[in-house]
Write a structure and sequence with these properties.
The chain is α+β, with helices and mostly antiparallel strands and about 260 residues long. It is built from 7 helices and 12 strands. It has helices at about 10-25, 30-35, 40-55, 70-75, 125-130, 155-160, 210-220, and strands at about 60-65, 80-85, 90, 105-115, 135-145, 165-170, 185-190, 195-200, 230-235, 240, 250-255, 260. The chain binds 2-oxoadipic acid and magnesium ion.
């Protein structure tokens, strides 16, 4: 159990959440201690948390969207999409294990990933203009690891916790977005070779490019933009599944290849 500060501030909330991550100790939602934590303040906590990671040497390499599919929104009980920040520390190469000893209670989810060729700045970004800025589309598996007990949180809690961000894998197939219809691009999720779930790109805001536009437009409200070269995770297509050490999880896509991960 982490020590709760007597006065809650953006700094102390960021400190508590980083500490939970570092010590692998999940905690109750920050909003239980700090009911005044609203969404705007929660994004400031997220900014502070990322600033501290950057001060420790991590590099910002992209943005992720969370809760962009109905499957995710229903499971988490939060029905609004959100954004969070990806750093180089989160990247895992396919073939390397999910390091269970570094994590609290990891779950994985398949995602459609964009790599940006051009800077994308809102407001007013549409799915079309968003897709025009994309250099390549890739398959991904995100490893989420909420710092909250049982992944129970409100929207400000999960925003402050950088949307449960932990690690992610990218598939090695890179496709030009004009070659694919992402609405019908399907992912079949398998554990130990048996299908556990499936979804198409339509599950992600109707089209993953809608999620990308949403990210650009919501970051613009905070004076931020998506930078060229950044990786954008558009959000879990299916519900996330728990990682059981030694049991491989595979996301098999129609055109984007497949990504295999295993906890160790
Ligand atoms: C929050 C993170 C959500 C997604 O893709 O929807 C997310 C959570 O589910 O713990 O990464
Ligand atoms: Mg995700």
């Amino acid at each position: 159990m982490s020590v709760a500060p007597t006065t809650w501030t953006i700094e102390s909330a960021a400190e508590v959440l980083l500490n939970a991550e570092e010590t692998r100790c999940d905690r109750h939602p920050v909003t239980e201690d700090w009911p005044g934590l609203d969404l705007t303040t929660a994004y400031l906590v997220q900014d502070e948390l990322i600033a501290r990671k950057v001060a420790q040497g991590e590099k910002v390499i992209g943005v992720k969207l969370g809760l962009t599919s109905v499957a995710k929104q229903q499971r988490m009980g939060v029905n609004s999409p959100l954004t969070a920040v990806l750093t180089d520390r989160m990247v895992l190469e396919e073939g390397s294990p999910i390091p269970m000893a570094e994590l609290i209670h990891p779950r994985v989810e398949p995602e459609i990933v964009f790599v940006l060729g051009e800077r994308l700045e809102g407001p007013g970004v549409t799915a079309e203009t968003a897709l025009a800025a994309v250099r390549s589309v890739r398959a991904g598996i995100e490893v989420i690891d909420s710092r909250y007990i049982d992944f129970k949180f409100t929207l400000p809690d999960v925003v402050a916790d950088n949307a449960s961000s932990s690690r992610f894998f990218l598939g090695d197939v890179e496709r030009d977005p004009s070659e694919l219809d992402l609405v019908i691009e399907e992912c079949v999720l398998k554990i130990d070779g048996a299908e556990v779930d499936r979804a198409t790109g339509a599950a992600v805001q109707g089209h993953p490019a809608e999620a990308l536009a949403l990210a650009a437009n919501s970051l613009a409200e905070r004076g931020l933009a998506l930078e060229a070269g950044w990786i954008i995770l558009t959000g879990g297509m299916t519900d996330a599944v728990f990682v059981e050490p030694g049991h491989p999880i595979v996301a098999e896509f129609t055109n984007l290849g497949s990504v295999t991960v295993v906890g160790e």
